């Protein structure tokens, strides 16, 4: 565990990134009054600290603008060629970061598959690749920024956005069909996909699908669900166990830790549960401690926090599915998610559609059409 990570996280928990950078910048200027050897040591360390910070966290436009001003000022003021080069290197990184678009990763597959070619196992592989990519780029700073509600983008926002899109897509895929039989087929497909996600230990995608299938929008479609075989109805009920919050998500933890020692660390975890654990760690320790009457940063708090972060970041790695990346499954999934039309009114629209289908199903059940159809009568 790096001491600098703990120090950064402690500082960022106490103040904003902009204020922290302002303090670092002032420290750089104050060093100009030191003797040459001390000045070089301090300013060299500051360049390394900023470069490390820049390479491990997303920044908003205000902070990047502060960094650019700092670099340009250092280039003008410093006479040492070494220091000027360090400032230019840092400025180059700042300019590169300003051009980064934190949009979802897009694969460049060699093939594009159609929906009819995608089976539950193939879709589960694509989901594990997509969400695994989001998980792999998380850093301790992302956790701090998210839990501290810092403004600007961070990689946890990206992971949540993708997971929410998957949940929305599953619900939309079910609700788009008027015919009960087609909705039941889609429901059957996603139940099987969720089962495949569990086999791959892609828990994030498993939770996204389970959340969609047990949402109020889908749960009210009683005729659609009763059209499943009894075995599939049991599987649908089993999916709820994973997202059941009872006993601190006991079923999820059991599934996460229930694999063999070889497989246990290969997974895409359910991020929200682990974030809650991190939040509880921060709440369990005071931010500062009193030592000889002076308030000091409680580093014990952040050491415990980093222990939990490392448990998630270091221990768990996404399943190795790189051999499938260019085979078309990931392209198919990303194309489906890009086609989504999510807006502030999407939930209202989807709710209205769900209620309409519920009313139709109630009428169908009232007229006993399923029973008559099963007996061979035209309905």
Explain how this protein is built:
There is one protein chain. This protein is mainly alpha-helical and 379 residues long. It has two domains: 3-98, no CATH class; 115-374, Son of Sevenless (SoS) protein, Chain S, domain 2 (Orthogonal Bundle), CATH 1.10.840.10. It is built from 19 helices and two strands. The protein has helices spanning 3-14, 17-30, 36-56, 61-77, 81-98, 120-136, 140-147, 155-175, 180-200, 203-213, 216-219, 222-226, 230-243, 246-257, 271-284, 299-315, 329-338, 346-366, 369-374; strands at 288-291, 294-297. It has a two-stranded antiparallel sheet with strand order 1-2. The longest helix has 21 residues, at 36-56. The termini are far apart. Mean pLDDT is 89; it is low at 101-106.
* Number of structurally distinct domains: 2
Q: What fold name stands as the CATH topology of the largest domain?
A: Son of Sevenless (SoS) protein, Chain S, domain 2
Total beta-strand segments:
2
The CATH class name of the largest domain reads Mainly Alpha
Sum up the overall morphology in one term: elongated
Residue share in helix:
55-70%
Task: List its salient traits.
mainly alpha; 2 domains; 69% helix
């Amino acid at each position: 565990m790096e001491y600098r990570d703990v120090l950064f996280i402690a500082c960022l928990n106490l103040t904003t990134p902009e204020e922290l950078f302002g303090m670092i910048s002032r420290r750089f200027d104050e060093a100009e009054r030191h003797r040459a050897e001390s000045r070089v040591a301090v300013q060299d360390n500051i360049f390394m600290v900023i470069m490390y910070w820049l390479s491990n966290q997303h920044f908003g436009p205000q902070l990047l603008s502060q960094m650019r001003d700092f670099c340009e000022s250092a280039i003008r003021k410093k006479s040492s060629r070494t220091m000027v080069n360090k400032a230019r290197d840092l400025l180059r990184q700042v300019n590169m970061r300003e051009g980064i678009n934190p949009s979802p990763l897009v694969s460049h597959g060699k093939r594009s598959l159609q929906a009819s070619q995608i089976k539950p196992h193939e879709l589960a592989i694509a989901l594990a690749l997509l969400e695994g990519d989001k998980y792999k780029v998380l850093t301790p700073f992302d956790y701090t920024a998210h839990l501290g509600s810092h403004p600007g983008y961070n990689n946890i926002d990206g992971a949540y956005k993708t997971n929410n899109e998957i949940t929305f897509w599953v619900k939309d895929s079910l609700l788009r069909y008027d015919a009960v039989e087609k909705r039941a087929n889609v429901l059957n497909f996603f139940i099987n996909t969720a089962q495949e996600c569990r086999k791959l230990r892609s828990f994030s995608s498993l939770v996204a699908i389970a959340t969609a299938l047990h949402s109020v929008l889908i749960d009210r479609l009683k005729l659609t669900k009763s059209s499943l075989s009894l075995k599939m109805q049991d599987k649908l009920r089993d999916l709820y166990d994973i997202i059941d919050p009872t006993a601190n998500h006991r079923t999820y933890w059991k599934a996460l830790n229930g694999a063999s020692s070889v497989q246990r660390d290969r997974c895409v975890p359910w991020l929200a549960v682990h974030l809650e654990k991190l939040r509880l760690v921060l709440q369990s320790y005071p931010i500062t401690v009193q030592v000889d009457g002076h308030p000091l940063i409680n580093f014990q708090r952040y050491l415990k926090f980093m222990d939990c972060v490392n448990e998630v970041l270091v221990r768990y790695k996404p399943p190795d599915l790189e051999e499938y990346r260019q085979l078309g499954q990931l392209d198919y999934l990303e194309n489906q998610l890009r086609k989504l039309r999510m807006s502030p009114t999407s939930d209202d629209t989807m709710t209205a559609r769900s209620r309409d289908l519920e009313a139709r199903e109630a009428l169908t059940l009232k007229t006993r059409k399923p029973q008559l159809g099963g007996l061979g009568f035209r309905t």
